[in-house]
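QA checklist item 7 of 12: single-chain prediction sanity check.
[x] sequence parsed
[x] length recorded as 470
[x] structure emitted
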Amino acid sequence: MDRRLLSLLTGIGFLVAGCTMAPKYTRPEAQMPGEWPTGAAYGQAEAGASLPAAEIPWREFFPDERLQRLIDDALKNNRDLRLAALNVDRARAFYGIQRAALWPSVDAAGSWFKERVPAELSSTRQRMTAEQYSVDFGIFSWEIDFFGRIRSLKDSALEEYLATAEAQRSAQILLVSAVANAYLTLAADRERLKLAEITLEAQQSAYNLIKRRFEHGIASELDLNQAQTQVDIARGDIARFTQLAAQDENVLNLLTGSSSPMSTDFLPAELDSVDPPRELSPGLSSEVLLYRPDIVSAEHRLKAANANIGAARAAFFPRISLTSTLGTASTELSNLFHSGARTWSFVPQILMPIFDARLWSAYDVTKVEKEIGLTQYEKAIQTAFREVADALAVHGTVDHQLSAQQSLVDAVARTYRLSTLRYERGIDSYLGVLDAQRSLYAAQQGLISLRLGKLVNLVRLYAVLGGGAV
């Protein structure tokens, strides 16, 4: 009997292994142009791109050794990334639970029964004590998945697990780009601070000179007050950029999971001290976006919703469960495992839903959830295309902006020198010097912002193309 029962259960398991009522999944057509946008803002895409961004390891994209160490620390210690990894572990465990439901669980149960029966109730009209020992080993209520309900739930759990794993890769991409952006922003703010300090020194010297001229009656009080305003503006900027640099360091400490302030050896002094990220090209086809982790994750969730439809459909059909045991029983403990004390049972059960309005509502829910998943998938693709297009628009124009801004800085610097000479010779008032100095300072700060914007946009282009996960 043991072998026949085992063969029966094995045959049933193989019979139902591939059954499912889920709709056949077909990847939706990508709702985006096949090529990147073109025009004056985008320049020309390079046809001979060496590798897709997603295949370029972050260590190769970021050659700066200090930045590499910071990113490495963040990948080891960042709490958000650690939570993402734990979510993956949890989803994997849920999938294991659901997969295990396909197969029977074998349990062992032992019992002891003792009962006193009075003479009035005894068949022998004599008082008696009944005692029974039993040990059972077998399957207690296993649902045989004829219509694929459990298998569909297992497939859904698998897709959720894969979606969570892709979400972890997305979290790593965001973390790598966030560390790089914070690092570059710190370098820019420190350069702005240095510029403000140089400006303050120059303005303080100019103020001291005008003050001496005022004391000798050569300069007016208006000139003195105008010079004082520039000194105060520079002092205020020094305090502001000191604050911003400190906050940038705090961001890096948080991202890297550091428990103490990091050494200045890991921090850049200015943008010129940073090895810039390598140049890259998105290629000619926008299909590379279909392999971006967040889009792959959205597709896995769409597949999970598709599998849930199969489970909802199977709920309309009968559920067949099986209970079978092999064991031994005896009225005496010493004879429990003797020959002739064997027992067995084989109890199939079928549950047929006749009327349950909740099943129809649950089925409608799964269909709507699939439509929601499809919409989210399409939106993820369109958002990704827009992000890349925006980054390409900056990439195609930022060099022209930098060239124009550098020319502006050079022109305003010459104007400032000439205005200073004219004031010192008494040709013009100090107002011309003041306007020129303000314009020069603003142009220099604008140049730093543009240089930072170019580097940050390069990091963003790398991230939105899926780079940073390896």
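[x] summary fact logged: The beta strands are 106-117, 128-144, 319-330, 342-351.
[ ] second reviewer sign-off
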